[in-house]
Amino acid sequence: MGQVYEKIEPWLAEWIQRQPMFFVATAPSGDGGHVNVSPKGPIGTLTLLDERTIAYLDLVGSGAETLAHLQQNGRIVVMLCAFEGPPRIVRLHGRGEALPGDAIEFPDADGALPEQRRTVIRVSLDRISDSCGYGVPLMAYQAERRNSRAWAEGKLAKGGPTALDDYMAERNAESIDGLPALRTNSSVHGV
Predict the structure, then answer these.
(1) What's the rounded Cα separation, in Å, for the pair 26 and 182?
(2) Which residues pair with 91 in a beta bridge?
């Protein structure tokens, strides 16, 4: 039932862009450490750069596991699944790298403040596959949550124009396993 593709075919690109969200998974090298899986969205924060390259907008968050793992070994998988319509799961495996938050435009990324753009993750794909998705439940999309922007606006209102940079310096400097993640406060926008 599953299939491996040489590239993101046009029909697959259209399917990807119709999904409301995606998931990102990374892991540190070796036997130790924690595997990380993060929900991401809305889908406008993911863009297909070409048939074998994608990128997504990485917003300020409470952790920086993906950044730490990518700096250590570069391995990443982006997964999308159909919550509506015919069942399907798509996995995009590859090597990722962190770019500055303004490195790529995301014209369909509504709702995020410019200050929330922590990095852009660009992924060179080495495996593109799909599978049945029979185990994924049918769920109806309602709306995007406004919490992320409201949180950022609150931080900026209370802490001033450097509040998000200060937060990242404190909370995103290393992974839960102690790996370096976001380098320093001065490199936040120049990853």
Answers:
(1) 16
(2) 79, 129
pTM of the model: 0.92
* 115 touches 79 (CB < 8 A): no
- The residue type of 100 is P
Nearest-angstrom CA–CA distance, 51 and 19 = 18
pLDDT score of 191 more than 80: no
**Residue 149: strand pairing partners:** none
Instruction: For residue 31, give the 3-state DSSP assignment.
Output: coil
Buried b vs exposed e over 43-60: b needs ≥16 C-beta within 10 Å? bbbbbbeeebebbbbbbb
* DSSP symbol at 138: P
pLDDT tens by residue, 90-129? 999 999 999 999 999 998 887 788 899 999 999 999 999 9
CA separation for the pair 84, 17 (Å, rounded): 13
pLDDT in tens, 155-167: 999 999 999 999 9
End-to-end CA distance of the chain: 41
* Helix and strand element counts for the chain (H, E): 4, 8
Residues 6 or more apart whose Cβ sits within 8 Å of residue 82: 15, 19, 88, 89, 133, 136
Asked whether the bond before 137 is cis by omega within 30 degrees of 0, the reply is no
